[in-house]
Amino acid sequence: MAFLAAIIKPLAYISVPVVILRSVAASSPTGKYYVRLGMYIGTLTFIATWGAAIAAGMSLVNMRYDVNIVIARCFYALASKVMNIEIEIEGQEHLVAERPSVLMINHQSFLDILIVGRLIPRRTSIMAKSSIRWTPLGPFMIMSGAIFVDRGNNARAVSSLKAAGQTMKSGGVSLWMYPEGTRHLSEQNNLLPLKKGGFHLAIQSGIPIVPIVAENYWWLYRKGFFGTGKIKVRALPPIQTAGLTTEDASALSVRVHEQMMEVLNEISMNSPSQEKTTKNSISSATESVETTTVAETKPSVDVTEGDSEKTPLAVAGTQTSTPSESGSDKVKGEVSETGTETEEDEGMVLVGRPA
């Protein structure tokens, strides 16, 4: 009996927090959101903690640029099971088609770390803002060969990018970065303007750019909601920069933005959020048409010629409004606030915090 008690008691103690968390998650959608958020952050913290020790050991044997893939795959293996979220990749061969390369992906929220865990190739460094050095992720990122850029000092930012280019070419190290410069998650499909820092780096070093697009996962994660499911990601063929000059950076950034935006619409169109948006639009249009028809057929209602002309226009306006158009308008409206290029934030990356 004493032997059984020694086994059962620890299990009982361990099961208590599990039961409590399940009860909280089942109590309300808000409770479920915070429980799942805590599970995700807890998993990230756990991997980052022992990952620092792994990074220290690997850096001692000159394997610092392989630290990211080891820790990232471990995080994905654990977090994908805990959170019941899967990353589905199309075009994975493009990630390693040419080495080194600048891997550019859209940035939506801290859930992107799960995407990094699934996709990041061997010998790949991550670009991050310099303040990340002083966070819990700092020691791990330093030992994994992360490239830190000081957004508040243009001279040091340029120097960091030049040094990064030299390291990439001499060591065959690819660079993972978020060219939008900040996280952006909304119900509509859109991208912020791309900062030119990464394009200058690629052009000056003659290194190809590999655009990567993750679908709009607003349907799976946003403030107040943390669901389960499959996130689709597509890697595009490398874009060569040999023969280009720094004067071509702007045109190249526009070209890559257009390609990424086209793919974003393609892989997001059948996501639950887009289907819901489409159904709601159709439903709203149908209700408007029915209301107009009823108004025209009721004898007690006096419908003037001017009113009858306006109603179809209102309905048509509802039907022709699309998510992509709304997203474009939203981006234009936000350019002055979050999309304007400055010397300070060009090519920056924000990682590791909830959206």
Q: What does this 3D model show about the protein?
A:
With 355 residues, the chain is an alpha/beta fold. It has a single domain (7-272), classed as 3-Layer(aba) Sandwich (Glycerol-3-phosphate (1)-acyltransferase), CATH 3.40.1130. It has helices at 2-27, 29-60, 67-83, 112-119, 138-143, 154-171, 197-205, 249-268, 272-297, 305-320, 323-339; strands at residues 85-90, 102-105, 124-129, 147-149, 174-177, 209-214, 221-222, 225-226, 229-235. The strands form two sheets. Strands 1-9-6-2-5-3-4 form a seven-stranded mixed β-sheet, with helices on both faces. A two-stranded antiparallel sheet has the order 7-8. Strand 3, helix 5 (138-143) and strand 4 form a beta-alpha-beta unit. Helix 2 (29-60) packs antiparallel against helix 3, helix 3 (67-83) crosses helix 4 (112-119) and helix 9 runs antiparallel to helix 10. The longest helix has 32 residues, at 29-60. It is globular. The chain starts with a helix and ends in a 16-residue tail after the last helix. Mean pLDDT is 76; it is low at 11-16 and 291-355.
